Amino acid sequence: MEMKKSIVVVSLIVPLLFLVPLFNGGIGTAIAARNQDASESWGYVEVRPKAHMFWWYYRSPYRVEDPNKPWPIILWLQGGPGASGVGIGNFQEVGPLDTNLKPRNSTWLRKADLLFVDNPVGTGYSFVEDNKLFVKTDVEAATDLTTLLIEIFNRNQSLQQSPLYIVAESYGGKYAVTLALSALKAIESGKLKLKLGGVALGDSWISPEDFVFSWGPLLKDVSRIDGNGLQKSNSVALKIKQQISAGQYEAATNSWRDLENIISDNSNSVDFYNFMLDSGMDPLSLTASELSQGISMKRYSRYLQSSKFTPGSDVDLDSLMNGAVKKKLKIIPQNVQWGGQSDSVFNAMYGDFMKPRIDEVDELLAKGVNVTVYNGQLDLICATKGTEAWVEKLKWEGLKTFLKMERSPIYCKGDKSTKAFTKSYKNLRFYWILGAGHFVPVDQPCVALDMVASITQSPAVSK
Ligand SMILES: *[C@@H]1O[C@H](CO)[C@@H](O)[C@H](O)[C@H]1NC(C)=O
Ligand SMILES: *[C@@H]1O[C@H](CO)[C@@H](O)[C@H](O)[C@H]1NC(C)=O
Ligand SMILES: *[C@@H]1O[C@H](CO)[C@@H](O)[C@H](O)[C@H]1NC(C)=O
């Protein structure tokens, strides 16, 4: 019932659609469309022959013109690998509408324009026509994303006025840092017309080794596993460390899967996205195979669709994206299922999944790029304990001072309870977000919104 009503709303919002066969660049064809008032546009870029990447741009209705502060654009990068930013980030986290197609009060559009991309190819509405075309590494994904940015930004002077902030979640953090480096290179060589504002790494999988070592001790400290569980967990973590240093990355991914099972078995199925909760939103998510490959898109969405987050709603993201939204967008090929190639995306990256990207963060810091790290207090999969451990491994010259500095508490909107802590030194900033699990903007929308306003130097200061 709810769902039917919503479908009507969508088609009313978009009475007219302009299909623009645009962009005949060197790479291949691109196709784009927009709604009547051009507040939204979307399209495909053929980033390599037969590899099609989908993007969706929202122009903010809250835009403030300030000659001293350009209006920012946020590029949201989802994790997985294989989780859809166009679906999850957009409809479940920060976009203008929720999965019931009702306005989201805390949408990040209040502070910036939003660009969602189904990255890498094969994710969400993006697709490949040949299975050999899935990317195998973060760097390959970054190359495709840079091609996409060139297609979108180079021909639009108004977009070029806005600095681009790359904000990532989970595995998306590995794409974010490789993309930032690749984009900077393209900017320096004149191939890409864009201003990079900075990079923000939310609960990001930057150093798999540090995360797997954090799981056991953290869960032991909060009584979720016992000493026996801790011992088992640490011994597999040690094996993973050895595999990583021997360059056996696929074996390390296998062991990561084993470790997740051990943690589940010894904790009576703790939820990896919030250690205060039990997993088991869906009994299927507890089977071994679901805990590995399926972790990408499916567990993500199930978790976010649990009643905890959307009371009274049973809208299923798959049905929404393959139904009402696909219909609205018009340009999704009939035979392309949203999420249909997602497991293949994960599998193709099996050998890169456990590779750390700490060096890339160091490179960005050395180049003077603003880097923000933010982490939800209750996350397990990318636990704050693991994030702090990789930050301490940075070679960045400011690290010593940064570590010694005191944090400042953050409150939100007259609420007197502490919502977060932050500190920054030179171009590194860290936010500890209290009461949030893996999905920070969902769990703490108010503080997350204030945080992105600050990161992006948004001229929209007060809500
Ligand atoms: C959401 O809307 C309500 C009512 O307008 C407002 O009081 C509240 O502060 C809003 N929350 C955010 C995060 O903007
Ligand atoms: C390019 O710029 C125009 C206005 O300057 C804008 O209306 C349009 O939506 C932009 N294109 C994209 C992809 O956002
Ligand atoms: C980078 O961060 C500093 C403060 O830490 C800020 O003054 C500067 O404007 C930021 N640059 C951008 C492009 O956001």
From TrEMBL:
Transmembrane portions of the chain: none
Enzyme Commission code(s) on record: 3.4.16.-
Family (UniProt): Belongs to the peptidase S10 family.
GO BP, one annotated term: proteolysis
GO molecular function: serine-type carboxypeptidase activity
Protein name in UniProt: Carboxypeptidase
Subcellular location per the Swiss-Prot or TrEMBL entry: Secreted
InterPro entries: AB_hydrolase_fold, Peptidase_S10, Ser_caboxypep_ser_AS
Stored Gene3D superfamilies: alpha/beta hydrolase (3.40.50.1820)
Keywords: Carboxypeptidase, Glycoprotein, Hydrolase, Protease, Secreted, Signal
One cellular component term from this protein's GO annotations in UniProt: extracellular region
Alphabetized PROSITE patterns for the sequence: CARBOXYPEPT_SER_SER (PS00131)
Major location category of this protein: secreted
Pfam families hit by this protein: Peptidase_S10
